[in-house]
Amino acid sequence: MKNAGPRHPERRKHPRLTYKANQRPILRAYDRKYHVINISKGGITIQSRPNPLPLTTSWLEGSIMFLDGETLEITGDIVWIIGDKMGVKFNNPLPGTIISREQSRIEKA
């Protein structure tokens, strides 16, 4: 795990969907809740305050609860941490249907 920060946007393989602060899905992991700041097929950025992960953790396993009630189990590697935010690269890409559904929901909001 690096503590250097997010990768440069031109390195991203997948476009990101960014959520407004009051419309963020919740990630449940390690008996804690985290707000999803943005999501792509390849990963997410979560806000780890006020529930930081254990310092020995370099991977994440949990469930994303979307605002429409759908849930999705995810696993991934923590690839960066800056302040109260962390980037997680999924072990398996998200299905395109989830990204499309979330994009439609964000555009309507």
Put the structure in a nutshell.
It contains one helix and seven strands, in the order E-E-E-E-E-E-E-H. It has 109 residues and is mostly beta strands.
What does this entry look like structurally?
It is a single chain. This protein has one helix and seven strands; from the N terminus they run E-E-E-E-E-E-E-H. It is mostly beta strands and 109 residues long. It has a single domain, classed as Beta Barrel (Thrombin, subunit H), CATH 2.40.10. It has a six-stranded antiparallel β-barrel. The longest helix has 13 residues, at 96-108. The model has no long low-confidence stretch (mean pLDDT 85).
Put simply, the count of helices is: 1
CATH homology group: predicted glycosyltransferase like domains
Query: Largest sheet, described in full?
Result: 6 strands, antiparallel, barrel
Shape: globular
| Overall CATH architecture | Beta Barrel
Q: What is the CATH topology descriptor?
A: Thrombin, subunit H
Mean pLDDT, nearest integer?
Answer: 85
Give the proportion of residues in helices. 10-25%
CATH class: Mainly Beta
Number of strands: 7
